[in-house]
Target: Aminotransferase-like plant mobile domain-containing protein
Amino acid sequence: MEFNEDPGPIDNSVLYDQDNHVSSAVWDGQERGVLRCHEHTSMLDQWKLTSTQIKLVERAGFGYLRLLPAMSLDNALIAALVERWRRETNTFHLTVGELTITLEDVALLLGLSIDGEPVIGPISAPSSVCEKLLGGVPDDLNGGMVKLTWLKEFFSECPEDAPMEEIERCTRAYLLYLVGSTIFSTTTGNKVPVMYLSLFDNFDKAGKFAWGAGALAFLYRALGNASLKSQSTISGCLTLVQCWSYSRLNVGQPKFNQEPDNNCFPVVLKWKGKSGSRTKCNVVSYRKAFDSLNSCDVQWLPYKDMDFTAVPDDIKSSLVLRASRTMLLCFDKAERHLPDRCLRQFGMHQTIPNGVERWERKSRIVDHGVDLMGKMDLALKEWSERWLHIVEGGGDIADEVEYMQWYPKITRKYIGRVTSSLESEYQRTVTAMREILNIADLLSSEGLDSYNKDLLDEVKNIVHKSLTEQLEEIPKEKMRKKGSRKRKQKDNLGMEYEPEQ
Model:
């Protein structure tokens, strides 16, 4: 039997772009499969930084981001999350309500500053910027982008005794490589826009930018683009997306031989352990998990018991911005940060949020000589007033009940159709029994008395017997179905050719 309930939204005042969203295609049976995930952290550890370079990197605001581990991305998990991302609200629409990656998540997971100057600057001719700040220009500087491989080839090993000018050039190249392979990774695969390089002219000034806010603006835009049914790739800091999901959702988390350190900073390092194993799931499996997510599967306050002594004072003092309703900027990208839609992530009761203000995401051509600051004046004004628009909780249990009555009407409840059959029920039962049997086999009988040893053996025997019966039952069920179809065909034929009396 196929589950055909209208997946929503019933009221499209919030999700007004549903027709272009990937969930519309999935519901119509048009699977796009796993997204191609563009992030390039695997080669970062091949850069050899001197002690002087490390100090410059720290002054520029990237002392923690450089520690970002080269994680194995779960493309299927990311693809399933993207199916629930909505660019109208910059949130994930899950069965339990809206959640999002906030400024707090960026600050604590990546150790990036979320307060300061917006990540935007003058757009100069790429060749002149490279010549001035790197001392050289690549041969194939097309579209204002430089290849990551070129940066690594010429700047990844700086001699300890190099003159200061060369050290600074190598460090700028590293910083451009770092942001181009992590927070500002592009779908081109192996290139980074030169425009970011201009922000590394002065290392102390670079340290005054709100890099975390810029990274989130870039990621919001990347998630929004990837959520369209016409897209098959995604960029931005996908390590952040994956670790955010690990921290908050009981779906697809790796299993570790040793529990991760809950007090490390930045928090992404918590998931660095390579002793972890992850059950390989496909997009459909993850989709089903998200379609049936319960509130108990959500860690609403993952940082509640965190040891904040390791968190820098400037980051701690700016965490109140996690609830700022503001505009985030990254050069030509401006994206709304809407914490009023996700109050439970701040320990508040969720009220019905403000209506969605529609805005057009303009694709600005970032060319040299363009006065980008003038074109972004409204967004820049919103960012400058970020401290004036901190969302405060005031809701109670009654408000949350009202929210949960309102939310199912405006959201997309399901992504995929659910087909229920006796055979699939058998398969789920068999999988569960196998897992129980595996756990029982892993249990050591050492130290158990004879009574408990017998109990453990009895559990194994019962599960093994039930598993055998289930596996024998599936072919029988198939035969019954097949026989039923043949009888039906025969009956139909008999009726069709039955002679008149």
